[in-house]
Design goal:
By secondary structure, the protein is an alpha+beta fold. It contains seven helices and eleven strands. The chain is globular. The chain starts with a helix and ends with a strand.
């Protein structure tokens, strides 16, 4: 059985505890990734920030320590792909940081494991790009309650700022129609989805 070492990303984009939210947003968008490990001043793992953590409207200058999750679920290169997938299901997460001798050796996502377990590793890069939904002005964003620690939220996209209809999106929340539109960075999956504008 193949292990995490066969499917993890070793070219890991990281940020540090002294970085700010805007740095994280730029990294996620520029690298087309869903999470980044946060390192302390000694290069040790201090936390992780995912696109889901940035659903709320954080100020660009907000420090990452305010936003990051400091309880990080980690794995090792020798862990089986099946056990890594089980850990994700148990903890309801989409990313595992891979540690080797107390250093960050890689990161593995639920998509990495899905392709591995489905026997489609060779097609992973093209499938990931091809499967990314494209949003249009007027579409609705649905953020499920467990992703933001509250009720499900729906919003109408009033502007797309990413390339080819990708995130971030300017969203007017339907439960707060008088509020100013917010910039929302998310990747469709179990935590969020897109609904086309009703005909």
């Amino acid at each position: 059985m193949r292990t995490v070492a066969h499917v993890m990303t070793t070219d890991v984009t990281t940020v540090t505890t002294i970085d700010v939210v805007s740095t994280v947003r730029d990294a996620l968008i520029d690298r087309h990734i869903g999470a980044v490990p946060v390192l302390d001043q000694h290069g040790g793992l201090a936390g992780i920030i995912s696109a889901t953590d940035l659903v709320e409207e954080w100020a660009p200058s907000m420090g990452v320590q305010t936003v990051m999750s400091d309880e990080v679920t980690v794995t090792t290169p020798s862990t089986s792909s099946v056990d890594a997938a089980r850990a994700m299901i148990e903890h309801r997460i989409h990313h595992l940081v891979v540690m080797d001798n107390a250093r960050v050796a890689g990161i593995v996502s639920s998509f990495d494991l899905l392709h591995e377990l489905a026997g489609e590793v060779e097609a992973a890069s093209t499938l990931t790009v091809a499967a990314r939904p494209v949003a249009h002005v007027g579409d609705h964003v649905v953020i499920r309650g467990h992703a933001v620690g509250q009720r499900e939220r729906r919003g109408r996209i009033v502007e797309t700022r990413g390339s080819d209809g990708g995130p971030p999106y300017m969203v007017q929340w339907l439960d707060d129609p008088h509020d100013e539109p917010h910039s929302v960075l998310f990747f469709p999956g179990s935590d969020a989805d897109l609904d086309s504008e009703p005909g």
